[in-house]
Fold each of these.
Amino acid sequence: MKKVMVSLSVMALAASLGASAKDWKEIHFGVDATYAPFESKSADGKIVGFDIDLGNEICRRLKAKCVYVENDFDGMIPALKAKKFDGILSSMSITPKRMEAINFTSKLFNTPSRLVAKAGAGIQPTAASLKGKRIGVEQGTIQEDYAKQKWAAAGVEVVPYQNQDLVMADLVAGRIDGAFQDAVMASEGFLKKPQGKGFAFAGPAVNDKQIMGEGAGIGLRKEDTELRDAMNKAIADMLKDGTYNKIQKKYFDFDVYGG
Amino acid sequence: MNGFIDIVDTYWKAYLWTDGYKLSGLVITLWLLAISVFLGFILSIPLSVARVSKNKWVSKPVWFYTYIFRGTPLYVQLLLIYSGLYSLDVVRNVDVLNSFFKEGMNCTILAFALNTCAYTTEIFAGAIKATPYGEIEAARAYGMTKFTAYRRIILPSALRRALPAYSNEVIFMLHSTPIAFSATVPDLLKVARDANAATYRSFEAFGLAALIYLCITFSLVWVFRRAERRWLAYLQPRRAK
């Protein structure tokens, strides 16, 4: 009887040690593969994208294997908590509200917001330059918040739209003088397409941590602090040794890491 | 309940009249309703008389107009006027048209007024057709000209009898105003969407909008009920004294 007790408790001890000292042979990431160029599915069904390349690089540095699990974006946080995967790698912005529920690594990228206008319009994303102009924004975005807080009071006419397509349509039609949105979206979804001909980014990227947040990171469970620290180190290392730059050049012609 | 109070606390101004920079919410919704119903009413009176004319060259164009505007969704009409017309060079190159169609508000009022005018024309035309023979014969017997007969007898009688159907049209128009935001007009529902996006409290954000719409509808019903009691009194069963 005693022997049995001892061996049982040894087993229990071993099991508990195993759990806490889990050295992450495999890391499962939740991905919503509908957001090119960050994460999407290639024609042969593989999940690809900037986030995925970063994830693979992080796994390589942690000597683990990356496994990607598809999940809808709105169900990511509950699924992470239910241990369906260990991290959310899906362009999830780091916001105070989400920080209440989960943890984040340091940021992976911070896609800037930029103004798009007719090429050669000569406007800048500042209240002084835009005074008296009409600027379209999508309702409910951080860009709308920013434009209303920083520009509207100074005499810029900020026009919210139901969705981004309508903003772009009115920009082309000439109803608005500029459109203010995510730079990557503008470049991939508009400027590089036929309807974006004759339009260009106007002025530099706009960054405002207070209003626009600090970028997107990997979402992790609160208790997995070792994993977070290890990932943060990997991210810092790849930023330092130039690997990050090499990966981002594959996708973007500007700096997505942000200042 | 707390959610409701939070949203009312933060957004009550935006729901009722301003988001801090521009008019928004209830004021915009009421303005859209009032101006489009007013324009539609004024236009529909001559149009409904034309609609019942025996001259085909007069009645057929009006029939065609109401057929088009009652045969397509208002949303499509708004998109056609707001996005469609403005994409034409003809519109953009003429200064007057350009400055008119550039404003989302103008496009919305135009679409709403044309739409409600089409329905109102048919309602009034139906009421004119249903004018009792005796009334018209009496007018003729008095030697009234056609114009005088319309002015004194047919239209007052027809408009009264059209009241119940017309009140429905006004309420339908109110319920059509939420599409105005497709043309960037910040109506009541747009504010509700703002509140929803910012707080994730969908039930409270849209519930508050629904309550406000209900209040407007009830006020409209009340006003029309009073109007009917006054102008349709002669059609009501007699009350015992």
Note: The CA atoms of residues 34 and 174 of chain B lie 9 Å apart.
Amino acid sequence: MLQIQNLTHRYPNGVVALDDVSLEIGAGMFGLLGPNGAGKSTLMRVVATLQTPTSGKVRFGDIDVVANPELLRRTLGYLPQDFGVYPRVSAESMLDHLAVLKGIVNAKERREAVHGLLNQVNLWSVRKKALSGYSGGMRQRFGIAQALLGQPKLVIVDEPTAGLDPEERNRFLNLLAAIGDDVVVILSTHIVEDVAQLCSNMAILAGGKVVRQGAPEELRQSMQGQVWRASIAREDLEAVRQRYSVISERLLGGRTMVHVLSPAQPSGEFAPVEGGLEDVYFSTLAAARAA
Amino acid sequence: MFGHVASFELRYQLKSPVLWITFGLFFLLTFLSVVISEIQIGSGGNSHVNGPYAIVNTIGVMAIFAQFVVVAFVANVVLRDWETGFGPILHATRITKFDYLFGQFTGAVFASIIVLASVPLAMAIGSFMPWLDKETLGPFVPWYYIYGFLVAGLPTLLLCSSLFFALATATRSMMGSYIGLVVFLVVYLVVSSLFARPEYEDLVALLEPYGLGALFETTKYWTAAERNSELMPITLQYIENRAIWGGVALLALTGAYFLFSFSTKAASKQKKERKGAVAEAPSPVTVAGVTKRSFSGGAAWTQVLARARFEAAYVFSGPAFIVLLAIGLFNGGGAMWFSTESVDGTVLYPTTLLMVQALAGGFTLFPIIIATYYAGELVWRDREKRVHDLVDATPAPDWTFATPKILALTLVLAGTIAIGVAAGVIVQLAKGGAPIHLDEYLVWYALPALIS
């Protein structure tokens, strides 16, 4: 469905945000994982027609996105990473306004669509309230409601769960999961769990390059038997870092829990662990940094 | 789609307090000018306060004032979606650039029409007030108000909104648009005073941006009776004038259309990457114990001075400061330069006191404008840029935030006045022949201005 070919983007200040990115994305939920500054937002903005890339092609079905942005916009739902709202405008009237802009001109159909979405994202009771007074979670739910207006075939959500509390985050992921299977949904995030819970396919972006892609489950399987963990004292951390390729380290009860990547058991204190998607992510990032 | 965008914009503006505050202000001003004979905008002498001459004149003058409101409306259209960050959502919909841009523009123009409509409304209502001297009143003729609005009000609104819509699109800054308006007005005033001689009258009437010169050209020799009963005719000159400025407005709108873009353009490929030296990263500081912190009074003073320097540097490097100062120097410098020519044609020595007089007349206002603008700017800057949470969470005492802002403002005032004095000295040097007394500048100009 969505084909991205040799996409490169260089900002005027010389920063190369995307470096020869190529991706094939089919229907269903696609996770784009990467640390801050990896180029996720730039990629999302290019696909959403809000940024002309320096070079490369983006196609969605028959649409050449770079050449005909207005064609893609007819079938696009986009939730940017961070958006403000106009003061004094209610969720309902803003959604109604956006519905017209998206081409739902029939007043009756528009009311149905707007009311349906407000209901679906659980904002029905506060629909007359000004958006500027919404909490972060409510604002994000408004954001997904506007992205879903007009049955888009391509939905792009950029870091939608950043800053949400666990309950709101769950509610939001459920909304995403409810989008139909024939729609391409691209979810960019730096939270591994979002992707693990939702996506059937994913790619890891680092330093503007795609460094890994595949189905989360397959990627996880490929790590089996290679991830080892040990709980070590903080003084020993530096020595362990020197000797092994450390995937991740986190504090646990005052000691440091390290995960290392190794084809065989590194030493007696290391125990095998079933590698999770997080291990895939961190080991890929570590490899990308080393390269 | 176009109509929907325009009406959404208008409904949005109708909720904005700016619209109703300025509506009230314009209404009140006009109303007072009608009902109190000491306050006058357009009418005067023995023409009726609700006669056609007074009505058209008042609307024309108030439309020039209304430009400050119009700029706020149309610039808001361009800037709101950028500033709130809501833009990407709109730009990713099916709406075309034309509908988006000019739909919102139309809505904003209607909002300014509503504000200016308060003027004829206030005149009409004012003319019915029972305590008015019946001698100063003519019959109530609704057509006079409509005519005045159409020929003296609406064209100015349309011209001004087009020009500053384009400027806001180009600068993407409210301040930039306002500076543009001030420059436009200063140029207008300077040029029209330069050409205020009978031999230029036709030229001015043809080229003056508000078309009032052309409109009132025919009424110059009218008697009071004519002023009270006849509408000024639409002359060929007026039509030519409006056609010229209408063309300028269309040009500005076309420019805005091409300047504006939904998507951000990529950098040109030729641009070379600058190879910066990769600095050796300093070793990370250990978490505890090394960095010493102090919360004493001495530390507080260091914080005050550091922040005063920071705030003052912000003002001195700001574009608003530079432009306001430039306009002030233009005005004050001109006043000083010409102060040596007295009315009867004799040439005076450029004495220090003469310079001080000219500075006080032509320049004093500008340090005050700068200080007022930045007083608000400095106080609200943290909050606007959303850094106040960070700043407020530091352990520096509260007074170390207010004091440096006051210090910085004093510094800015003193600096601005010093620049004015320097300009005075330069004028004296250029003209030569008179002793320069820096102490006189200090005692007679700098200190009084600073203290006030």
Note: Residues 52-84 of chain B form the longest helix (33 residues).
Amino acid sequence: MPIPIDSTLGMLADNLRKRRSALPMGRRTRLAWTKGLGIPRGGETVLYTGQMWQMVPAINAMSRQLAKYENSRFSGVFRLARSVNRFVNLTPFLARTRAKERAVANARLRNVARLLRAAGVTFGYLYEDDLYAGTLAHDEGLDQGFARHARFVYSVLKAHGVQRVITVDPHTTNMLRTVYPKLIPGYALEVRSYLEVLAESTLPTPRPVDKSVTLHDSCVYARSEGVLEQPRKLLTGGGVRLSEPELSGKLTFCCGGPLETLFPGRSGEIARARVEQLRRASPNIVTACPLCFANLSRAAPDQVDVRDISDYLTEAYVPAEA
Amino acid sequence: MKSDPTFLRDLHVGAEFDAQLCMNCGTCTALCPLGIELMPRKLFRRALLGDREGVLGQKDTIYSCLLCRLCEANCPAGVHIAENVRTLRVALNRELFGLAEA
């Protein structure tokens, strides 16, 4: 049996309504990346993670579980899981994360904060109120729950007096910049991706990164948010040599990530196809989205290195002591 | 096939469903990373004809769409393909799964 769509979407809807996240995590997990950075609380300009990087270890863990259940006779267990999940958050049990993956995800968020500081950008953070933007509920057509959630997230941002949001990933950027304004009358929030902010900032003189890479454009950045030139400008400005894959820019090819919940087998097939396209350009693949990173790195063979763009940018632009 | 005009009317409620712009050229199908022949142009045709059962019977196809918009970036008619697929998901969530309020 395939993964049952009704129970899976039902769990997602329940989690969003009761726990305000697709994969609800504890406070310690969500905020571990901030340790020692001393980012001030609140402010008119905030860095907003939307919990996306923090979810990557849980997404990986869930993906390993789902792959076991897809087309097995145990897929009926999802119906039971949905019933139990209404009362007990099952995410920590179903998605047992690995310490190494948590460390990698946290390092990416620390990279972003350090890059913004190196560029002289002043920002705060909302800590407990840095909420998931609801992308998965929107994409799966859970419109009522998504609209309710979007209004809540916006009310929290406004209660903190936030005027400008600097996002870390394409999905949160897309929700806060393009989707929320259609749902919320009088929406007033300036939303920029950190890549857009950095590309317009004066960065320190880089320590050139002597590496040839290929860039995998995120579908959402490329086709919905127009973030195409910024990652290229930042990478090449940092000395990285860039080779374009056969499908790039507005014609980029999906990483398969959107299917990993309901059709993990097909998701893996698309990811492997994309890795093959990219490795023909370079074995060093650069992503700019946590979900693309998760899906492509799971599909990549050992001789292919998948890294987030913030790794290279940090190496180039962040002074060693920062 | 049984045509139910209320199905198409329901799809339009609060949604930007513009599948009627489709010229049936097949560019979307040719480009789809999943290579599902049914999706999206034939699926939209069923929806436009009010073929409620025909659409509801394609749930795996409808939830398989990546919403990656590669088709949309190349659609000569400018159809909002991803949003249309999302609208079909809203309908399925309501009519098949009882998730209208979710």
Note: Chain A has two domains: 5-199, 212-317.
